[in-house]
Amino acid sequence: MGLFDFFKKDKESKEQQQALDEGLQKTKTSFFDQLSKAVVGKATVDEAVLDELETMLVHADVGIDTTVKVIDRIEKRVARDKYVSTSELDRILREEIVELLDRNSGATGSRAILDRPDSPGSPFVIMVVGVNGVGKTTTIGKLAHRFHSAGKKVVLGAADTFRAAAVDQLIIWGQRVGVPVISHGMNTDPASVAYDAVQKGVEMGADVVIIDTAGRLHNKVNLMNELSKIKRVMQKVIPDAPHEVLLVLDGSTGQNAFLQAKEFTKATEVSALAITKLDGTAKGGVVIGISDQLQVPVRYIGVGEKMTDLQLFDRTTFVNSLFKK
To answer: Quick one: which of 101, 145, 129 has its CA closest to 295?
Structure first.
């Protein structure tokens, strides 16, 4: 790496850290306001402090089950260490959350595309799922920008053919990023679009093919059948496709995002999560709860409107930013 490349990478890293800090600001403000109230006038972590901490985590949309896990782990530390001061609470809480996320992490999947040699033989295929309105198509566009900017060849497939806006939006994103979009228009067979997109990816020696799919949950059986058909058709071109099923969730909806995630994991095998719109909510704790409860790694988080504001999720960086005062 040359000196220019080093400074460029360092600048990008600082810009991403700033975007993350700003994106989590609403969650941080709410989080620490409540944490301060939990420990005011207290010298040690006692039952009353733990009760307040439990309420605080639930309000941050960490979720009941995950909150109980965190409190239980802290109670064990207090019992083991005999004396834990309230000044240590944020450090202990940080450590426990990182460890919880560590159980469900992994650098494999689409985040590893940037480390792969160009055109390793066949494209890495990502099928993107999620209900309408969560930022699914925008996430695909930002993901395409991320890969394209790193010098990877990208093909997009507009297989959300039930919503005209989704097809048009993806085509616009393709033009903005500078990558081809395979589209058959609205009310066409989604599986056929996916097949052609994967075929195009193979023909042009692409590194990654990203397939958009319809965001409907009103009939789980139909959704399951549709996604299964898309998978089968893509496998005619690449037998092990898709290599990743990425579920996009709107972080600002809190526990509703968790309910959507549960429904989608019943309908198809989800291998990774992208949680969007964290910059507009105080419910950033949902990232912790969803990852813990579903045992599916969070791959990306959306912390702003810019194309660069879809970030790789790093559990330590995320938690450190959350606790940064």
So the answer is: 101
Give the contacts of 204 (CB within 8 A, at least 6 positions apart). 153, 155, 180
Binding residues: 130-137, 212-216, 276-279
User: 226: part of which helix (H) or strand (E)?
Assistant: helix 220-234
End-to-end C-alpha distance for the chain, whole angstroms: 34
Amino acid at 314: D
Q: Are 92 and 84 in contact (CB under 8 A)?
A: yes
- Residue 83 CA to chain centroid, in angstroms? 37
d(CA 136, CA 131): 8
CA 244 to chain centre: 13
- Position 121, amino acid: G
110-150 pLDDT per residue, tens = 666 665 665 567 899 999 999 888 989 999 999 999 999 99
| Tokens describing residue 85 | 């001061």
pTM above 0.85, yes or no: yes
Q: Would you list which residues are annotated within the binding site for GTP?
A: 130-137, 212-216, 276-279
